[in-house]
Amino acid sequence: MKINSIKNKRLNEEVLNIELNNGLKIFYMLKRNYVKKYAIYSTNYGSIDNVFIPIGEEREITVPEGIAHFLEHKLFEEPAISIFDEFAKLGSYVNAFTSNNQTAYLFSCIDKFEENLELLVKFVQDPYFTDENVEKEKGIIEQEIKMYNDSPNWKVYSNCLTGMYLNHPVKIDIAGTIDSIKKINKELLYKCYNTFYNPSNMVIFIIGDIDFEKAVTIIEENQKHIEKAEHEISRIRIKEPSIVNKNLIEENLSVSIPLFNIGFKDLDIGYDGEKLVSKEICTNILLEMLYGNSSDFYEQLYEEGLINDSFGFQYLGYRDYGYAIIAGESNNPKEVHKRILQKVEDILKKGISEEDFIRAKKKLMGYFIMDLNSIDNVATSFIAYLYKNYIMFNYLDTLEGINMHDLEKRCKEFLKEDNYCLSIINPK
Amino acid sequence: MEYTRKVIGNSIGLNFVKTDKFKSNLISFSFIRPLTNEEASLNALVPSILKRGTMSYMTSKDIQKRLEELYGANLNLDVNKKGEKHIIKFSIEGPEAEFIGEENYTDRLFDLLLDIIYNPLLVDGTFVEEYLIQEKENLIKRIEGRINDKKQYAFERAIEEMYKGEKFGVYKFGDIESVKKIDKESLYKHYKTILETSPIEITIVGKSLELDIEKILGDKIDLKRENIIQIPRENIFSKKQSGKSVIFEKMDVTQGKLILGYRINIPYEDRLFDAFIVASEILGGGPNSKLFLSVREKESLAYYVYSQVLKYTSTMFILSGIEIENYEKTKEIIKDQVEDMIKGNFTDEDISDAKNSIITSIKTLQDNNYTVAEYYLSNVISGENRSFDDYVNSIQNVTKEDIVKSCQVLKLDTIYFLTNEDKR
Fold first, then answer.
1. Is residue A354 part of a domain?
2. CATH class of B2-220
3. String of DSSP letters for B383-422
4. Residue A49 in domain
5. Which candidate in B295, B300, B388, B419 is best for mutational testing of the A interface (most A CBs within 10 A)?
6. Does B304 touch chain A if contact means CB atoms closer than 8 Å?
7. Right CATH number for B245-419 from 3.90.1150.10, 3.30.830.10, 3.30.300.20, 3.30.1330.40?
8. Same domain, A197 and A302
9. I need a labelling partner for B319 at 20 to 30 A (CA). Which of A87, A388, A394, B225 fits?
10. Residues B47, B52, B58, CA angle at the centre, nearest 5°?
11. What predicted TM-score, i.e. pTM, was given to this entire model?
């Protein structure tokens, strides 16, 4: 068994890893003294992968919105046993999630890790779709969609993405729509499964106090029959214009005060790895300095009653898309938006303060260190970064490599007057 | 992980949880107050005004800058309900010193937290008028903003309806009218009352425990406080005669939120209470529970359906999100499943699955610094003083007989439905 190690002295952490012959990558991080043991089995397949050439076919297809998420629900179905019961017998907690970029199945347990792991690997590798069980799921997912539709915080975000993007599938809801899920059938589910659930497109991350070699043996044993895919997956990349779809989207829902999301669409895309993550951190430092809790902007708008505690922001960057969302509640979201742009002008005129820069860096550094407390968080973040072609442990080094010049450049190029969408949910 | 507790001065508990598994240190102060209409809004406003400035860090901005210098230390100020107690909590968390290479780092965290609690910005001996006006407005917005999160709103409303006229029915931020009446004098007076008369629990989770809290605190305040308040144990038995009331609340929603509130009628001090915890787990704990299987998997009526036990008031809630037209059907299925529990229609396997699941939850509380702190705080509040292992053992020893017995005095009290229709 050829096990590699990624060490980080500074964080006092180590990740072991191995790649099986069929392409499956397995990672392990030792967390001593933790009661919990946790495993996540993830495929690099999410809601945005909706146009592709199915494995063994020649022509591209567009699948209904929400199918990756539907597939996630249905993988729990097995002909003879109930997966939930099996995990329950072991006293474990099993769950799954679908994001724009990945679908992941996970469990946490305190005991019998190997049995849990075997169960996880088996059920993810064993799809069982029938007309009947696919139909039955539609009612459940319809209620899930309706739950989201009643959530103004979700709607304001979802509308903002629709406003920023014209073609890119990041704009569609992960769960799809009540109409789109009706078009899902077992044949389509198998096509998606067979294309994207190949080990070469998948990762297992385990964390806790675990015997890694034993875990690898179990996974290997259960993978014997699965061959590496012969070809790379043909995902069709959608061309996204360098403009936004709409600058303003408003909707009325039962809320007490208008909610807003201001999205800035990143046009500097098309790369991953260190460069991508560096851009991501740089942008988040920039947002901290401009609009963070210790900024003049925050102080002024808070005192004027234009924003409250709910105000916040984040930049998310991926290979083919990226955006910053600035969110909050306000009786005058348009004024908040105006002031946000003014602040950019201000800082470009006055220049960036070194003192603020150092503080913002310290803050992000502390956040990263504290986030390592949660083993669930470490596992999901590690995989998310891996899909960006980046090893999470390098975060602090990447962070330290960012300088004021990077920041000024980013400020000029990213936070512009035209690449935004202001999404507002007004009270009815 | 090593837990020690010491009482200093009068009613100030010092809880240390020494562990090196986390990469941060967490320090929290909880002031325990009675939950009442008169106090709730005042209690909620105190943390809001305190975060506006101290005599050393005169503005929110200065406090925030300080937090950033301390490597993004997390400052949390909030109020929460634990039964009929209202907990005002101040906490600060920062990365473990060895990872940032700064000495005396934890001391500085502690100093800042103390400064925020005990050294507020005062002008002419009281809070700043302008800040109070802003924070009152923000609190009113928060109260109004309850409707934004439908699931949480429905849950809180169900509690309010079920506990109408009882202390537990008071909303954690109080009500808008009470907020409006508060002025800087009344708030400052209440703030002093909180410091002088509340039982205080200080909890520290982390590695850097060389802090001499007793000394640092003793230098700042008089530890020998007098007139500490006594907050009585909740009366868990319903005052209502026949129980059941049905509440329909109309709102513009696409999904109805159905909540059934039950009185368990067994206090947590009773041995049978843990048996009921197991009963609730079998009924609606996880994806192999009776409710999940019947309401979701069999009938596709809901995406979420589960039961939840509130300890201090001995209440069980069953929550679900359903199609409006499926109200009757879902309600009947839920009641049938509860009936099954009372009749003992569940297997030994259901019991062992439920126990395993609860034990996993209890044990994994130890993997999060905030839940560890919360566990020990609850321990003090309930006067139980049981370790994680004691709790696990108690669950382990529950028998089928106990479970059935624990369900016999269960009474449906309130049905709450958030709907887009007028009452049928």
1. yes
2. alpha beta
3. T----HHHHHHHHHT--HHHHHHHHTT-EEEEEEEEESS-
4. yes
5. B300
6. yes
7. 3.30.830.10
8. no
9. A87
10. 135
11. 0.94
